[in-house]
């Protein structure tokens, strides 16, 4: 898709070119070059060493801390604060512009919705954490951009993006030197924001650490047979695997940008805070997929998009073969209620057209749920004998 048609991605590139490459302020109209060394030294002195632990608002503290600071310092800080707010949906364009008005006259600041925007031109709504953690978020921006600005090998926007990607990724998955300037041990959403802005095709628009953790946990079964260690790649791969079967009526751009927040995807994982909740949600998601029976195994069902359906005839054949009786606990009620369980849900997902009667067994809803739960523990339960024996053992205990 064309990411550049949304302001956040275009502005990020323009920002890097202006601030990092050309050493010019992006949010103020002054053409005076930015002196990064002097600016970061003064930010370190006023913002870090002069930390204000009072209960005053961030705006009140910043205005006091930078009172009498050099214009060069204020311009750099205003640009970093702008970058913190720019892609955030919950902050209006007017408020985003107001930050620079602390120190600069209206005529000295760029204006218009191409710079200060909200709505679909942003990338996410990070929630209260991004707002209440603002001090640490800006510390993180200072640390990253100081390193990027001081590196003489960074001569293009693409080179700046690559270095930002490395620094942001390491901040999430590695360790930051606690002696480094502008160090903070707080988790910061700005790292996730920078990854996505730099390479939106590579990193999802998910700016919450907790959201990424839950998504990987709930949908672990979708990529269980793929050896993917990198969490960011795992999330992208989960999206790729679920893409055809979810969000089929959504706008194509919206679906690509915010897949995990679509109406038929978000309820599957949001609010699943404990490992037990996440495992349960994972099982239920797999059960829903398995019980969606159509006429042909692997049939492509049109509905603006396509999704795979299970074979209703094959499911019925399995139930008839087992006389509508659970093969584990022997539950039977008027040829109803029982369900067809696929011994290997992943193989069905990968090559559904090859599913045969031998791949299905009939289970009652309780045994069916437990069967999927057992699959989270061991692949030995993909075999009929092992699964049925364990289910019978549990039923008799």
UniProtKB/TrEMBL annotation:
Residues in domain HNH nuclease? Answer: 315-369
Classify the source by domain of life: Bacteria
Name of protein:
HNH nuclease
Q: Which organism is it from?
A: Chthoniobacter flavus Ellin428
* Upper classification of the organism: Bacteria, Pseudomonadati, Verrucomicrobiota, Spartobacteria, Chthoniobacterales
